[in-house]
UniProtKB/TrEMBL annotation:
Species in which this protein is naturally found: Maribellus comscasis
This protein's name: Uncharacterized protein
Lineage: Bacteria, Pseudomonadati, Bacteroidota, Bacteroidia, Marinilabiliales
Amino acid sequence: MKRLIQIIAVLMMLVSCNGHNRKTVVLNGFQNQETVIYSTSNIDYYLGYDDLVNYCKKEDNGEPNDFTFRQIIVYLESYSDKPVLIPDTLGTKLEMESKVLFTESDSLIRIRDQEHPYAYLTGELRWIIIDFAKKGKLKIHVNEMDSFVDTIIVDRVENKDYGETNLTFTNDSIFFSQLRDGYDKKNTKPNKL
């Protein structure tokens, strides 16, 4: 019985560590560019305007059904103020959830507004933030502390069917999480940091 408990403990440790791919990143930000700020209630992500436009141009494959990168460029070019602000609620709307039986204020949910011209912009921007974070090409402002962080951890947790990417502070507190499938669609092999 004692041996079985030891085996179970070892297996639990191995399973919990399986698929983690952690990388510590120093955030260098960007130089000599206008600023784009993706704003959430807790964190503001500062990206270089030129870096973001160039990234979107490079990733745009020109297919009519894959328009999200073009949508980002149009938004950036049409935004007249500086810095360019992108709230995380852009392209969404509040909807009353009829199946939830709480008070009215509890049953409001935020969903993508399919009719909004920038409905898919923030969804794609979350993937871009991950790519920029891996390269250290952004700045992260923590609103509660009113300060920028200079080092983060990019943690990819994956197996053959699904995964997620987390951005964490150096104390392992998760401040950004994105679910995804476990494979890179271009290479059909597990994603690497």
